[in-house]
Amino acid sequence: MTGPAHPSLREIADRGIPFALIARDAATVELLTGDVVDVDLLSDIPLTDDSGAPREVLALVPFRQVRERGFECHDDGAPLRCLIVRERTALPRDEALAQLPTEPVALQDAGFDIADEEYADIVRRVIADEIGRGEGANFVIRRDFTAGVSTDAATAALTWFRALLEHERGAYWTFAVVTPGHVAVGASPEAHVSARDGVVTMNPISGTFRHPAGGATAETLTEFLRSTKETEELFMVVDEELKMMSAVCSDGGRITGPHLKEMSRLTHTEYVLRGRSRLDPRDILRETMFAPTVTGSPMQNACTVISRHETTPRGYYSGVAALFTPRLTLAADEATHDLDAPILIRTAYLQDGRLRVPVGATLVRHSDPYGEVGETHGKAAGVLGAIGAVPRDAAAEAAVAAPAKGTVANGTVANGTVANLAVADVAAAHVIDEDAPAPAPRRLADDPAIAELLASRNGRLAEFWLNPQGADGPAPFAGRSALVVDAEDRFTTMLAHQLRHLGLEVEIAPWDAVTDAQVDGAELLVSGPGPGDPRDASSPRIRRMREVVARRREAGRPLLAVCLSHQILADTFGIGLAPLDAPHQGLQKSVDVFGMPASIGFYNTFTARVPAGTTRAGEAEIAADAAGDVYALRGPGFASVQGHLESILSRDGMTTLQRLVAQALTPVTA
């Protein structure tokens, strides 16, 4: 509702009314007011009133909700907070700005909670002890920039929100949420998940280019886009989010992009994933908790690794702000609400007089510890500069108003860090006001060379996930069925989707729930991938996967083993297992799979290895490289592969998968 009788933003704040301000376009600010209710579970989010009528709800979902998926976390008791919307007002942007305060919000005792050298040591340990031991492909470890704030919380929130409206660009949501005892203000670049009219969208963003002083240029961005680390980092998070899409969407989802996410101080690379689903939006949210861009992959083990290396709880960092809006028209069996849920990153939190800006770096096998330290500084500077808590780059601000040839007008703190700012400078920083709105700058993505460099990335990817997945003719395994055993890597959801595309009826069972009767009765058993050392007899998960593979082999029943299970199968033939000299996490390789070259994505730290030139081990035929690393096995009623044929990195994934399934389903002759 709109009208002159509506109280001003200042009046709402002074009266202590819970409210949220959300800017999702350049013209409008949405003001939501209502009542606050804290609930325990996502399923408890009250989308209907006592009469059953649908209502709008904004939920702040903390990281601790991953417990609903059985994942590990430090539990700080952060509430799943719901603002039940009683009134919604659409304010023109200029009208909202006119009501927002401009006085600076001073900071005291500002700095990171973890020193730079200590954070660099954490990076080294994660690379050596987690990635180096097969626990996953990448992990996000956070640190917090903190400061004291004497200004009252609501005024600080309104001030910072104004600064974001004036100076930030490219955000998916710019928002301020003020509820009793807690404030969250941010400009999130990333839509984690949305569901509108039955279409689910995810937006994996990865890679962070910190703009140099004076703004970014095509030349400075080109070096970033050519970085192997940044490219592979994005591919890995796309794979991880496709796992989630395959779990909630009947069509598995397809990817479009890559695109640039251009913000005022940072530029990211991104893809967009889309698929169709009829699930309740709360179930969609549960199955997609949380984004690999702020946790790691595989997701479940990433949560365990985070718990080992982060000593404090995350609060709302890496959670989501989820807006559930009643749908105006409904088809049969469709959800009653649409969902729009950005990730809670690039966000400042204020509680009990302390500002907290959590930031994290994505750690991969070739991360540089000090480079990751610099990334956290750049991200913190991006937030603090955007809310006006530290000085902005004056040259970049000027470039926005009058872009130089070949220059995009984006700003950042000098040198892209807060480390170069004295605490006194941070405390005295103020918002730099402008006399007039700046004209829209030229986008870097419009540069032909940049567009070509981005588009070239897709030449490495599987067409299966890039193109519409319609029927290509009669499915080769129509009428057959398969059971996929999940060993804590949701690549199994993508694998199951591809198997269904080949005509199989597929069920997925977790390693700790699958029964011997299921193992024995499956027409085709697919023993899946998972993190960890295949030789680790102390792990209940590894022991159970060994039992599953051995039981199936002894019965002579059709078996396809993938990655971890491939290594376990190789071990049953007396083939040795060993760690790789360098982990293959998100690595694309062209290998020979029984006489046919295949471009496949690999996510492994361990390998089955034979002496060079070995082609058989008992009844198993071996496909290996010149060094003896085994990429595939086949024999009567079984086949296996080290790589992930379901990955976006597997350009020949579907062809190879069909060949191996056909091998496994070949009847064993007496």
Which structural class matches the secondary elements?
alpha+beta
- The CATH topology assignment of the largest domain is Anthranilate synthase
Quaternary organisation of the protein chains: single chain
List the uncertain runs. 395-440
Number of DSSP E strands: 30
Shape: globular
The total of helices stands at 18
Provide the CATH architecture of the largest domain.
4-Layer Sandwich
Q: Please outline the major beta sheet.
A: 18 strands, antiparallel
Q: What is the domain total for the residues?
A: 2
% residues in beta strands: 25-35%
Average predicted confidence as pLDDT: 88
Topology:
Blueprint: H1 9-14, E1 19-23, E2 28-39, E3 57-61, E4 80-92, H2 93-99, E5 108-112, H3 116-130, E6 138-148, H4 153-167, E7 173-179, E8 182-188, E9 191-196, E10 199-202, E11 205-210, E12 216-217, H5 218-225, H6 228-248, E13 254-262, E14 266-276, H7 281-287, E15 296-297, H8 299-309, E16 320-326, E17 337-342, E18 347-351, E19 354-363, H9 369-386, H10 394-401, E20 407-408, H11 423-428, H12 448-456, H13 463-466, E21 481-486, H14 491-501, E22 505-510, H15 516-521, E23 524-527, H16 540-555, E24 559-562, H17 564-572, E25 576-593, E26 596-609, E27 616-617, E28 620-624, E29 630-635, E30 638-641, H18 653-665
Parallel strand pairs: 21-22, 21-23, 23-24, 24-30
Antiparallel strand pairs: 1-2, 1-7, 2-4, 3-4, 3-16, 5-6, 6-15, 6-19, 7-8, 8-18, 9-10, 9-17, 10-14, 11-14, 12-20, 13-14, 16-17, 18-19, 25-26, 27-28, 28-29, 29-30
Helix pairs in contact: 3-9, 5-12, 6-14, 16-17
